[in-house]
Structure formats: C-alpha cells, structure tokens
C-alpha cells in the first residue's frame, strides 16, 4: 500500500531550501520515488529548481543548495500513481504563465484528469509529462489569461477539477496553498520565526522547529503576498471527506490531522478490533512498522500481553527479486526475521493495518509458524478492501483485491492463519472521534465523494461518517494577517 506524495512550502525563511529538505525528510514516508525543491530569489526575480529520482538523501547535497537561493521554497516527495516513475514526472512542476513562472507541488489524484487533459489538448496544448499535476498547471495558466489574478484563477480551476489535491505553489514572490473541496488529502500550516510554512503533515512543521497553527479547511485557498496572509473560499463548503487511510496507514504517527492524533487513532483501531473479534491467545504482536501501534491497542483492549515478534532490517529497500512465490518468500525474509524465543510454543494474535492483495501476509504467517508459534490469529485494523480508489491511493482494480477474490474462509486458508477478522465497517469512523472532518471510505464501502471517472455525478455519495465535531465555516473574503492569527 502506498500514498503518492508529500508537499511543503516555506515563505520568508533564511536557508529556505535547506529547511524544506529537512521537512521532506520528515515526509519521506509519503513517497520515495523522486523529490524536488524550487525556490524564488527576489534578487534575480527567478525560480530555481533541483529535482530527480530517488530519496531526499540521494538527490540533495551542499552544491544543490547553492543552486537554490531565495527565502521562499516549495518541495515535494513523490510516489507515482498518475504518471510513471520517470524524471519528467517528478515535482515541482514548472509552467510559464502570463503572470510569471509557476512552481507547483501536488499531493493527490484528479479523478477526471484524462477528460481535462483531452480538452486541453483539443485547444492545442502539448503535454510534456504523464502527470495530472501538469493538467492543473495548464488549467491555471489558462485561467490566468482571463483573470490575471491567481486567486480567481484557482477558484475557476477548482470548479473544473474532481478528485483529491493539496497544492502549494509559487508565482513570483507569492505563495499559495490549496486544499480540495472535500479535504481528501491533508494540508496544514504553521509558523517558523513568525513566517508561514505549509505541509502535508504536522510532523514536517515540527521537524523544522516550527509551530503548528491549523489545518486548511476543505476548499480553502491561502495566499501569502508581501508578508500578509489571506484566505479565500475556492470551492463549495463541505463537512469533508478526508481519506480514512491517512489514520490507518499513510500518516506518521506523530502527526495530528484535522484535530485527530494519528497515534491515538491507531490505538483505538486496535482496541475496537479486540472488542469486535476477541480470541484466546498468549501474545499480541504487530507487523512492523504500520501494525505496531494498533497491536498495542489490541493488547490493551483484550488484556492479552503485547510483545515484539519481529526484527526489521532497516537497510533493505527495493530488491532485484522477481515476484515469484518462492522469491517473494525470500524477499519477506530479507526484511523481517522472527524472535523465535518470543513466539515459540505460543498462540499469537498478529495485528496488521490492512490487507490488500494478500501477497505477503501468507509469508509473514509462515515465518511465525516456522519459528514455533502454535496458532496465528490475524486481526486487520481496517475493513476489507472491496473497491478501487480513484483519488490517489494505490488500491488496484477489484479483481486484484484479496477480499473480492476469496471469501473470508478461503482467504484465511490462503494466508495460512488459524483465523482472520477485519475491523467492522460500521465502526470505522470510531477510530477518529476528534476529527473535524468526515471521511472518504470508498475503497471499503463503494461510496465516493465523486462518481467514478467518466461518470460525473453518478455513484457519488455523502461519506457515511460525518465529523465528530463541527468544523469551522470558512466565509468568502479574507482572514486577518498571518501574524495576527498565530
């Protein structure tokens, strides 16, 4: 399971490029295929950019920061969903406009990108990449011809875009941050020494020793110009449809998203799993790293002791091993080894955050049983995946989903477990009681904020889980200057 991107923006900071690189390190879990930083230099009135394939540590060095002058920067880490893993698809994306060069970073996925691209190509535009981010850039460039105002251009473009997007961009010395009308992807702002920063997750603000201020609201546009911050409504108001998988898996556990601690959400998921599907066992273990916090919650909810069963090799990334059954088993063994002394002769509850294709779960269960576990009861802290995602989560077509291909009994046998249970769909919203937004859970329920691509207005449904507390309404117009809002 992957999520596609993390974004960051810094305004008015000395060493803006270096600070942005530190923030991207904190967001590296959101994408490891490519990264980049663009800065704006007031002296030359120019955008400078360094980007490439690879992780932050591979792309940026001291010489690169010398090529990134200026006190305003946007940065990006990428996992490809729309557009392949090619250098031309890495971000930031630059686009020439009548108002200057636009540097844009994007987290999300436009569900109607193909239709928008076709319409733009019909007007004679030629695309250089496969990414939907370039579609956004061309939309904005076109709207700027008509309006000559970036906020108005964004409002017009947002009226045409469907899907998930959190954007941070530079247009000259102006920085803008945008969250889609359903708030499907996270985006927050903070301050460092009185200057605004924007990030996919609050953990990135902490990494640069900043102070979290608030999350952007669904449909909000925040503009920072000449040191002043103003906010505008860019889309219809909604109670929000944040991707619930941010709390289950994507986000770092030290982040807080729309008022909800990710760490506490995962603890609650484990406790709910224990309440919903108890079992007699001697030890609760989690699959590193995503299942560990939920496993602690399951242990608390069940009264069964929590213990560590795995040692994870932190130096194994992608490997050359082909995905045959035998080689896949060896690949899992490269990354995980079992603490035999901890599990031998014991009945285990193995807690995992989710189960998508079930291509490695069987190997993890086999590792535990080879180490002497007498029983392995698998508890998944998410409902069964039954539908694809159109909004940036790498959930494949239905025929590849394990819970579509097999019944629960068949799947239990397939992974070699003694029992297999999932978090009940009707209790999913309980994992995040403090969230100011409702959730998109389309991959579990088939109910989406937007209809599937090509079926505008069809199949759309209000997310079943409304926010647990009323989100603040965003009126048309502006907020006070940023310094007054801290």
Briefly note the CATH topology name of the largest domain. Answer: Glutamine Phosphoribosylpyrophosphate, subunit 1, domain 1
Cα radius of gyration in angstroms? 23 Å
- Stretches where pLDDT is under 50 for at least 5 consecutive residues are 454-486
Number of domains: 2
State the helicity in percent bands: 25-40%
The mean pLDDT is 88
Quaternary structure classification: single chain
Full CATH superfamily name of the largest domain: Aminohydrolase, N-terminal nucleophile (Ntn) domain
Separate helix tally: 17
Beta-strand portion reads 25-35%
Q: What class would the helix/strand composition place it in?
A: alpha+beta
- Report the count of strand segments: 23
Q: In whole angstroms, how far apart are the ends?
A: 36 Å
Q: What strand order characterises the main sheet?
A: 3-2-4-1-10-9-11
For this structure, what is the CATH class of the largest domain? Alpha Beta
Globally, the shape reads elongated
By CATH, the architecture of the largest domain is named 4-Layer Sandwich
- Report on the biggest sheet: 7 strands, antiparallel
């Amino acid at each position: 399971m992957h999520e596609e991107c993390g974004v960051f923006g810094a305004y008015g900071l000395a060493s803006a490029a270096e600070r942005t690189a530190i923030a991207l390190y904190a967001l590296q879990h959101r994408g490891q295929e490519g990264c980049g930083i663009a800065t704006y230099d007031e002296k030359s009135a120019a955008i400078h950019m360094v980007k490439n394939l690879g992780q932050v540590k591979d792309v940026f060095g001291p010489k690169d920061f010398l090529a990134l002058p200026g006190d305003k920067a946007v940065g990006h880490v990428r996992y490809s969903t729309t557009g392949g893993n090619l250098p031309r698809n890495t971000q930031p994306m630059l686009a020439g406009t009548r108002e200057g060069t636009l540097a844009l970073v994007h987290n999300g996925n436009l569900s109607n990108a193909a239709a928008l691209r076709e319409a733009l190509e019909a007007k004679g535009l030629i695309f250089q990449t496969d990414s939907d981010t370039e579609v956004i850039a061309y939309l904005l460039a076109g709207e700027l011809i008509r309006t000559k105002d970036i906020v108005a251009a964004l409002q017009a473009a947002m009226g045409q875009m469907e899907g998930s997007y959190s954007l941070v961009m530079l247009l000259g010395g102006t920085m803008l941050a945008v969250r889609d009308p359903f708030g499907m992807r996270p985006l927050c702002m903070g301050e460092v020494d009185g200057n605004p920063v924007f990030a996919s997750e609050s953990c990135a603000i902490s990494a640069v020793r900043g102070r979290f201020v608030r999350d952007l609201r669904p449909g909000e546009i925040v503009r920072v110009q000449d040191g002043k911050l103003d906010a505008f409504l860019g889309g219809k108001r909604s109670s929000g449809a944040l991707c619930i998988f941010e709390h289950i898996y994507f986000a770092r556990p030290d982040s807080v998203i729309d008022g909800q601690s990710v760490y506490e959400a995962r603890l609650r998921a484990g406790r709910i799993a224990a309440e919903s599907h108890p079992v007699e066992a001697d030890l609760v273990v989690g699959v590193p790293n995503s299942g560990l916090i939920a496993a602690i919650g399951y242990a608390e909810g069940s009264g069964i002791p929590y213990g560590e069963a795995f040692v994870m090799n932190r130096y194994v990334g992608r490997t050359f091993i082909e995905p045959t059954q035998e080689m896949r088993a060896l690949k899992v063994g490269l990354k995980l080894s079992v603490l035999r002394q901890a599990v031998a002769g014991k009945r285990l509850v193995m807690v995992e955050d989710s189960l998508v294709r079930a291509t490695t779960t069987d190997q993890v269960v086999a590792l535990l049983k080879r180490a002497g576990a007498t029983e392995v009861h698998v508890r998944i802290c998410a409902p069964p995946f039954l539908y694809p995602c159109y909004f940036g989560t790498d959930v494949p077509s239905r025929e590849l989903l394990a819970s579509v291909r097999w019944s629960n009994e068949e799947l239990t046998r397939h992974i070699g477990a003694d029992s297999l249970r999932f978090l009940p769909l009707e209790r999913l919203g309980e994992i995040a009681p403090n969230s100011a937004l409702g959730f998109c859970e389309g991959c579990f329920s088939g109910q989406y904020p937007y209809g599937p691509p090509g079926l505008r207005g069809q199949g759309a449904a209000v997310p079943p889980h409304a926010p647990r507390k009323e989100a603040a309404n965003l009126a048309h117009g502006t907020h006070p200057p940023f310094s007054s809002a801290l």
